[in-house]
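User: Need the bound-state model for F0G:
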Amino acid sequence: MPYHGVISRYGSLMDLPPHTHPVTLLEGNTPLIPVQRLAEEMGGGFDLYVKYEGLNPTGSFKDRGMTAAVSEAVGRGARAVICASTGNTAASAAAYAARAGIRAVVLVPEGKIALGKLAGALAYGAQVVQVKGSFDDALRLVVEISRKHPLALVNSINPYRLEGQKTAAFEICDTLGDAPDWLCLPVGNAGNITAYWMGFRRYNAEKGTALPRLLGVQAAGAAPLVVGHPVERPETVATAIRIGRPARGEQALQAAQESGGRIIAVSDDEILAMQSLLAQLEGIWVEPASAAGLAGLAAEIRAGRLDPRAKTIVAVCTGHGLKDPDIILRRTPNILTIPAELAALEEAVLG
Ligand code: F0G
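Assistant: Bound-state model below.
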C-alpha cells in the first residue's frame, strides 16, 4: 500500500478533531537501524537500534508533530502559524505552512541556532524573527501573542504536536514486534519524551505490547529536569536542547518515573564524542543534540547502572547531522590541500 504519512497510517490511534484536514510531506516511516558495532563498543550484551528521525522530510522528528498541528489548524481555518524554536521546529513549521499555503512566523534565539535550521526556515519562506534572549524568552512571547491574535501556536504545548510525535513509538513497536526494554532520547522542551510515553501506553492498551523504560538525556549546562529547578542561562553545544524551562517538564519527569526509567545529564564532551563515534563507526551522522540519548546510555553502562536484563535498546536520533555542519568544520581545522599532481597525491595518501 502506498505510504501517505503518519495521519493516514495511524490516524485511528491519534486524538485529532474531526475538522482536521491532512497536510503531509509523507513524514514518518523512518528506519530503525541496527548499530551492533556501537553496541559492542559500549560493552555489548544487547541489541541496539537507532530510530533515525533525521530522515524525516525537513531533517528532524518535528515533522511528525507538525503534520498533526498544521492539519488541525488549517482544518479550523487558521491562516498563520507561529512558534518559538531552537531551529528544528521552525524549519518544520515553515515547511508545513508552505505546504498548506499559509503564513509561518518563527522566533529563534539570536545567534544560537544551527545554520541548516535557519537556512531551512528561510528557504521555506517563513518570517524569521531573532529574539535577544533564550528559547524560553521566545516561547513566552509566542504564547502571549497567540492568545491575543489569530496565530495558531504550533509549539509542543499544542496537544496535537504530541499526537503526531507519538507515532514514532508505534513504528518502533511495529518494526520490533514489541516495545524495546529501554528507549533513550534527548530532552529539551520535553514534548518528545512525553509523546513517546503516550504512544507506548496507547499501544500497550490497544495491542498488548510491553512498556519500555525511558532514559531521557539533557545536556549538563541545560538540565533543569536533573537539577530540579529552571536554569536561567542554559548553555550547551547541543543548541537544539539549550532550554532552561521545559514546557512539558513535569510530564516528562512523570513519564520517566512511571516507566521505571530516569532523566540524566551528560557533558558537551560526551555528546560530541558520541556524535563522532556514531558517524565513524556506523555511518550515521546526527546533529549534536541527537547524540545525547546514546551518550546517556553509554554513561549509564559505564557507571554499571544499566539493568543487565536489558536485551533490546532503541536510541532516538532526532535530527540529521547536516542541520549543524559548523560544529564539524570547527573541530576539523586543517584539511589537506595539494597541487593537482599524482606525486603529491601519492605522498598524501601513501605517506
Ligand atoms: N533533538 C532535537 C534535534 C531537537 O531539535 C529537539 C527540540 C530535541 C531533541 C528535544 O525535543 O523539545 O521535545 O524535548 N527542539 C525544539 C525546537 C525545542 O525548537 O526545534 P523536546
